[in-house]
Structure of NAD(P)/FAD-dependent oxidoreductase:
Amino acid sequence: MRNVVVVGYGMAGARLADEIRRRDPKAERVAVTVLGDEAHHAYNRVLLSSVVAGSLTTDAVRLHDDDWAARHHVELRLGEPVTKIDRTRRVVHVGETEVPYDALVLATGSRSWVPPTEGLLDGNGGLAPGAVAFRSLDDCARIVGHAAPGTPVAVLGGGLLGLEAARGLAGRGCLVTVVHPVGHLMERQLDAGAGRVLAKSLRDLGIEFRLNALATRYAPGEGLELGDGTHVPADLVVVSAGVRAETSLAEQAGLAVDRGVLVDDALRTSDPRVHAIGDCAQHVGTVAGLVQPAWDQAAVLADRLTGAAPAARYAGTTVVTRLKARDIDLAALGDVHVEVDSPDAEVLCFQDPARGRYAKLVLRDDKVTGAIVLGAPDAAAAITQLYDRGLPAPTDRLALLLGRALPAETTASPADLPASAVVCRCNTVSKGQLVGAWRAGATTVSAIAEATRASTGCGGCKDAVCGIVDWLAASQPQPA
């Protein structure tokens, strides 16, 4: 039997263990040991903003229950960080013990990056009192503990996670100011026009912004001083200024590292017995940073480690970024930083700031290669399906931007949706798979989620999954 050791029990490591057991349910081919440095069972980091907002409990974001490891023949060790990898002897050090491996998988994720703001760190390298990162379940507990109504809060970072934290805290009645060093929000995923409309929509929800602003000094209990000499009062500072791949173990072990642990299409590092997946891995020059690539990588690696598909290769993942913030519907995908007058692309743009709507569509050879859709969920659904499936865009581009030209794959009725249509992007679950699971006995949304994992990623497909379950219950004979 082959001994696989997974270092990291976050979303990538937990998914890999699940995928291995799907292929080898009785542990006849592969023994799995998972080493987690947190004391918690695996949880969905994508949904942490909902925990901050109070719309989900900590139990609701758990990926595994307390009995998961025993049921699935997995040796799980919590709260025991790995301190060293010995590649010569093929063991990892956990405290005073050694864990041998035949194949080692690094799923160590990423860590919050702390900007060089004076006073933000204490003398021991941790965050100063009143400053909290936004990365883990424990971070959420600390944030919520400070988040009484009326509390002035500063969020450092106007990217995806920072805005989700800001919206959650504003929903709790906090007085939130976002400090961002760039001229518009979410600059990696949005152009300037979309960033401006998003900022207006969030201002209407009570969030203030200081853009093109650098925090130069933090004083606990007082707040932030900015580079222009102004002051942002804050009893709490939430640090969400980006992440860095956690590569320290790999570097110590002498593995090839750039911005992440370098891997090939087989997800092997420079040592073929050591693999890396998720946020810590760098494949074809890109660190993943989102959940869908991590889970696609887990499926490929499970195929290889169990022998289910030894030739499996990871070819990359097309991702759609969604802002999970109440009252804001935003999707961004592909190459959005293309000018309207670009000679090699067809670019359309629609703006309606007063109503919080913005849409940009980038097409090449009639195919969607990039899009930003804010405040138009029907258009976002249609464009995402076209992007996923590589389908030609309708000739009426404006109707598509406004959500009025929906291809068959995005029709509102579950009955008309083709079986091949992807409902859950995070887990690549089609309508046909949902119907198959329902007919096999998974007749509730929770049972469907357990059987297929649909709705367990970003949560954006939950309404669609509910609609399909309701349609099946009303129109199909109940399974025996």
